[in-house]
Amino acid sequence: MNGTSDRDTTETYEDEAELDPRQAASLLAQTQRQAQRDFDFRSPWLSLLAAAVVLVAFGVVWLSVRGQHPYKGPTAVALVALYAVVLIRVGTVVYAHRRARAGVSGRSVSQQRAEGMGLAVALVAVYLLMGAMAHDGASDGVVYGVYVVTATLVVLGTFGAARSAAREDWRGLGVSIALVLVAAGSAFAGPRGVWLSDGVGCCVVLLGYGAAQAWQLRASRSDV
Amino acid sequence: MTVDALNPLIHVPTRLQIVAMLAALPDGDVLSFTRLQEMIGLTPGNLITHLRKLEDAGYLTSEKTGNGPASRTSVALTHRGRAALDTYTETLRGLLNGL
Fold first, then answer.
1. Do the Cβ atoms of A13 and B49 come within 8 Å?
2. What are the residue boundaries of the structural domains of chain B, listed by start?
């Protein structure tokens, strides 16, 4: 290896300390856990935040539509609150992801960019279709109630499921499938109830996911 | 089976940490020298000594991009390096089961 500016030094020290097999196994397990923790941005706290975000965001919209007869759709104030909490969630995830992946480049980074592009196109398509439905005279209850929230969650859940399956992340796959099922099932609750049903359902799924992550973290620590 | 059966190149605390850290990355990804240094907590000189030994054995590759102060070095585990860690882990498991 040639010396470079980010690793120039005059100090060289060879650490050749003896390791017995138990120490080696312990060090190996500890390093693998640290690497997994450092490179993976997901955490129980982020899942807890996601659960709170989805409950608050959908709850605010439900409060704004529950008394509407006929259904007109979320009020401007409710939509601002919805997008504000969603933006907080997105910002937190982007920060945690950048921190975890600092210094990492290569194939997985390109794959993530391509996946992100695919997801963005799918979400834009959901809103384009919403425009087309409104244009064709579909009722406000279908367009601004059942369709928009169900289609968005189904797209996000399906994306998460495909991504988790490709990475053999079975817990992520389970959570994604659960979100899709919650979204599809909540569609039966009608334009007002869909917001509450999705908010509570997704919150419960994400809390379960966070608890599973916390349990796994604890179990891996006690394995030492 | 004795401790001598363990790959002596990996059976050193710092190199074991380096190899295990790099093995946690997906195949095809590289890690910057500075991030690796930060994660393992070594001085640049110490880290470079260990990286050189691993590179000489064909366990990792390094790539330098840019020139001068903006230059950046990245390292990645090779297939040979991953296989060596797998063999090391298996041998270690065998040793511990025999204890």
1. yes
2. 3-97
Q: List CB contacts of A85: < 8 A, sequence separation 6 or more.
A: A53, A56, A57, A60
Q: Is the pLDDT of residue B36 over 60?
A: yes
Element (H, E) at A54: helix A44-65
User: CATH number of B3-97: 2.60.40.10, 1.10.10.10, 3.30.70.370, 3.20.20.80?
Assistant: 1.10.10.10
Cβ-Cβ contacts under 8 Å, B98 against chain A: none
CB nearest to B31's CB, from A9, A21, A104: A104
- Across the interface, which of A6, A21, A25 has its CB nearest the CB of B33? A6
Q: What is the mean pLDDT of chain A?
A: 89
pTM across the whole model: 0.81
CB nearest A25 (choices: B47, B52, B92)? B92
The C-alpha atoms of residue A28 and residue A153 are separated, in whole angstroms, by 40
Instruction: Name the A residues in 78-137 with CB < 8 Å from any B CB.
Output: 102-109
Pairwise CB contact (< 8 Å): B44 & A11:
yes
Q: Say whether pLDDT at A222 is over 90.
A: no
Domain boundaries, chain A: 41-222
Residue B62 has pLDDT above 60, yes or no: yes
pLDDT at B78: 95
pLDDT the model gives residue A9: 45
Tell me the pairing of strands B60-65 and B29-32: unpaired
